[in-house]
Amino acid sequence: MTTAALQPTERSTVRRGKHRVVTDRAVLHRILDDALIAHLGVQAGDHPVVLPVAFGVDPHGPDADGTLYVHGSVASHWLRSAQEQTVCVTVTELDGLVLAQSAFNHSMNYRCAVVIGVARPVLDAAERERALALIVDHSVAGRSATLRPNTAKELAATAVFAVSLHEASVKVRAGGPGDEPNEQIPDTWAGVIPLRRVADAPVTADYATAPIPPEVAQCDLSAQNSAQTGR
Amino acid sequence: MTTAALQPTERSTVRRGKHRVVTDRAVLHRILDDALIAHLGVQAGDHPVVLPVAFGVDPHGPDADGTLYVHGSVASHWLRSAQEQTVCVTVTELDGLVLAQSAFNHSMNYRCAVVIGVARPVLDAAERERALALIVDHSVAGRSATLRPNTAKELAATAVFAVSLHEASVKVRAGGPGDEPNEQIPDTWAGVIPLRRVADAPVTADYATAPIPPEVAQCDLSAQNSAQTGR
């Protein structure tokens, strides 16, 4: 499934910067794999409210082209208001600052995935458990298997929503600045400042006596910085 | 101005996780200073569209409690559709993964600012120039002063919008996991994986012969990771 091409719908067609559009669905999944949070936009009255959320991905379903899961408190008015509404889930990895010789050509290197779809409330018990495990494992692969089962009280307090990965678009900007050849000024510096995320050594909670487990010690939370690759 | 308290309106009142709400406007400005991109939510028909944007901040100017500026192509239908509409500008700095002994108590350490306001088109020539300089200097302080002036063509191709910082809310989560004392399991590891952004050495464009200037060599793009501080 991840080898299929993204087939933009009216809503997921990129209208600006078409040269930066990537239609390989595998790239969408790599960006989702790299990212640790998404920004979820939900309509609230006459304006959107955008908040950061953890998420999980099931590339094989059950929704068309795979499913992205988000969760939160059942008491969250913001999250509840997403139910059966069309939402926007945006994931951005920032790879570098692009400093041109003109302010106009300043840019950033980034990988951005935008998913638009209806927020389907996940009510099936098995799908809920699977979604919650996917969300935990999205940060630290294998973590969920090391945890005690969710309690009925915890499950009752948690709202889970699914968004199909069908309507998705991807834009990637990489490489150096784009000053026009006829506008280049040798004595003004231009270039890229590469950026990346790093994880420091885990800090054990004072109430935990177990050693750091391999899935935590070995998890790679660094993004696959592509700022040095061609545009 | 940055010493004033955030005074939430109906729209900017945090309803969940009130213990994480910060009302010190100086904290809002520190988060905005740290962040390199924002996620801008704009209503598009029956759903929001959220995209990453560069931004600049004028803490003293002209809108109530200061102004946040975004810019883009005048040909951007998405950005144009924000005009005079209420938008949501969300800035999130991710400081760590919080791994609890229960899936339910897994969390993240973050600093998040949410600004809701009307996107005011910036038409005044002087304010437009100032806004564009603030956006460049937001990434690399002092950079704009080293660049040639914007051309009339560049200015004509650029749309600039201002959002007041009046309706803003801030949430901060820091510190360790929050497993309930009566639920703690000594043999399950719990803790925090601190995360931070690092900048690698600048990569000079092949057409730039000038040496790396001090404002680029010295700019600090690392976020002020607060994951180790108390909750």
TrEMBL record, chains A, B:
It comes from the Bacteria. Pfam families: Pyridox_ox_2. Gene3D superfamilies: Electron Transport, Fmn-binding Protein, Chain A (2.30.110.10). Signal peptide: none annotated. This is Pyridoxamine 5'-phosphate oxidase family protein. It comes from Nocardioides dubius.
